[in-house]
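Aim 2 progress update. The chain analyzed this quarter is reproduced below.
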Amino acid sequence: MQHRIGLGERARADHPFWVLLLLLAAAWLFGGSARDDVTSLLVLRPLAILCLAIGLVGLTREQMRNSRWPLTVMAALLALILIQLIPLPPTIWSNLPGRGLAHEVAAAAGVPQPWRPFAMVPWRGWNAFYAMLVPAAALVLAVRCSPEQRKLLVFVVLGLGLASAVIGVMQAVSGGLPQLYFYRISNVGSSAGVFANRNHHAAFLASLFPLLAYGASLRGRGEGLQRRGMPTATMLRTWAAVCAGIFFFFLVLTTGARAGLGLAIVAMALTAVIYQPRGGGGLDRKRLIWIAGGVIAVALLLLVAVFFSRGEAVERILNIQTSDQRRFETWAPILSMAGEYFPFGSGVGSFVDIYKIYEPQQLLSPNYFNHAHNDWLEWLLEGGVGAILLFTVLIVSWIWGTVRLVRRRGEGEQARLALAGAAIILLLGLASAVDYPTRVPLIGCVLALATVWMSSERVEMQLRVARGGARSRSGKSARESRDYR
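Predicted structure tokens:
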């Protein structure tokens, strides 16, 4: 009877982990596009709301205290969106920066000025709020997972990345067979994996390199096997990580994403900081040899790709297209737009409609811009001073936490996992300077997990202190008992 109760308690304790796995699988299947008109969101978002409710029920104060940084950031983002959706009286709304055109249109039509929210396009603001609930659910569920389960999530994400990479290979080999693409509007003909956009696939693959470095650093048993000439679990994991890294790098080349190629090179450089060979330590001779070897390997990979003319990304670097130049040319008008709506912003999600008003005549084309292709600039336009304050605090906190983690990276597996999470945040932040990868539900979930991984080192340290205190108290009680006898 006691055994059955124990299993029931274990199942209740582990259910956030299994619910999170369900959410990640759904994000993999239905969350590879950043568009708001994708039919699969009808499945993903309700499921995410249910998962979020399950995660919130049972969330303890201790868990919130231990992961207060990622939870606070997510709560602040959701609050920023909701505040912009609060209706304001006409006298206040009409005096907000950038609202003159809408006020003049209503006045010319003879329509009474209604109450309006900060957001210029409210329905897109609500869409942004619902979109944020997907990574919010992943974040809350990851906070409720145990340290051991958070380590297992590393291999879950790597498995999802490997599955997407295999699909990308099939797409490349088939010459762009339409049946292999998950979305109607997609980069057919390129290696996009489970994503609609090849750039997002490349960014996703690049963000996996820190996790590969962490996996290769794990230490297992089997030294006796090594003495008998047989490979140990540690050796197998290391070589598996190296092979997976080479596979991912070549696949990034096939995507044709220039930013993805640069991101993959940065990611491979970061692995030298995360990976800890036996004995740990700083930049000793052995580590310098590994770093030099990695640099030479990357250079050789690029040369091989160019020689065999398989590296579409390398070809696109040498031949910049007009459509790519237009992306950079839009940044100046967007920055001017941000000044028009400062300090309150135009409202999260409003970029598409607002840009049509200010789009320069020389940049007009049959295609429309669904995003600014610079997420930092887009948040400045839509969020105003609120976004500036939030992301300033976020960047400063990340820098402070990363410096602390780099100094302590040799103290254990948990510190390396936290450093891998910090590296993923950096990579996706860099990718957001020329694209919008974190608006993709699957990548948003990975970013949410990265923030939990980054903060998990502090949780593990607190647990070690608590266990040490418990052992100390136990030893003291035993001594007092012996003295009493």
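The longest strand covers residues 87-88. The radius of gyration is 25 Å. These observations will guide the mutagenesis experiments scheduled for the next reporting period.
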